[in-house]
Design a protein that fits this description.
The protein is α+β, with helices and mostly antiparallel strands. The protein contains eight helices and ten strands. The protein has a single domain, classed as Chloramphenicol Acetyltransferase, CATH 3.30.559.10.
């Protein structure tokens, strides 16, 4: 209680400036850094096409899967981005969790499903793809998560009750009192949240960070388009809480994601 959390451990021996930043900027969006990467994807697309040869339709990898693979590997290799601020202290997350959205279908008004998944460091690319496809099929088939049930219940309550409940949950998180089950099921208790706007033909845009939960970064992927030199590229726009680590460290991490996607042979 108070000094321990089920999702991470307190970081000791921080510099005084780093330890003091949550007090200077108590909200995530007070310390927001915006960063853009343009990724050449011709080799990645060719890699996906080769990978999918002979695979069943429901087990086919997409460019988005390959991006998630690069992202997870970068977060394992650069653990300082996998931190979060809670209760005025900096914590190291004890796993790499990525939350992403998937639409029911590519139609206006189709429901958007949210998927949160832990990405183990030792899993293979094939294991990752099969696991993600299985999770998405469950969500699209009507799976109701604990988080869904909690939101549905909250929306049935009077507004003042819901507002008070959310306030209490926020304070419980600050005091490190939330149970592991609630944290594990909540999509906002995650290393990074990713929205793939390219899957619906849209360009990337920047997204705010939620003050609730522990998500310290948000990435938005845009559609693949042809550059003036004929190469296919996609932009990824990142919003990042600089309190967890300086912007240069984060930019180097995002650059590593770009490098791995441009040399996808390293993602197996």
């Amino acid at each position: 209680m108070f000094g321990k959390r089920p999702d991470g451990h307190k970081i000791e021996n921080l510099s005084r400036m780093r330890a003091f930043m949550p007090f200077v900027s108590p909200r995530r969006n007070d310390a927001l850094v915006l960063y853009t990467t343009e990724i050449e994807v011709d080799e990645a697309i060719a890699f996906v096409e080769r990978y999918n040869e002979g695979r069943e339709e429901n087990r086919r990898m997409t460019l988005f899967h390959l991006y998630l693979r690069a992202l997870a590997m970068a977060y394992h290799a650069r653990p300082n981005v996998n931190r979060f601020v809670a209760g005025g202290r900096l914590w190291q997350r004890n796993h790499v969790a990525i939350t992403f959205t998937a639409k029911q279908s590519l139609e206006d008004g189709a429901p958007m499903h949210t998927v949160k998944r832990v990405f183990p460091e030792d899993e293979t690319l094939e294991e990752m793809v099969d696991s993600i496809m299985g999770r998405i099929r469950k969500r699209r088939s009507g799976e109701v998560t604990t988080s869904d049930k909690e939101i549905n219940l909250a929306m049935m309550m009077p507004v003042f009750v819901t507002r008070a409940a959310v306030w209490l949950l926020h304070k419980a998180n600050m005091l490190h009192l939330l149970p592991k089950k609630m944290i594990d099921d909540d999509p906002l208790f995650t290393s990074v949240f990713i929205a793939n706007l390219g899957s619906v033909g849209l360009d990337a845009g920047y997204h705010h960070l939620w003050e609730y939960g522990t998500c310290s970064a948000f990435g938005v992927i845009g559609k693949v388009h042809e550059r003036a030199d004929g190469k296919r590229v996609m932009n990824v726009q990142y919003s990042y809480d600089e309190r967890v680590e300086d912007g240069l460290y984060a930019a180097t991490t995002m650059g590593q994601i770009k490098d791995k996607l441009e040399k996808p042979g390293e993602l197996r």
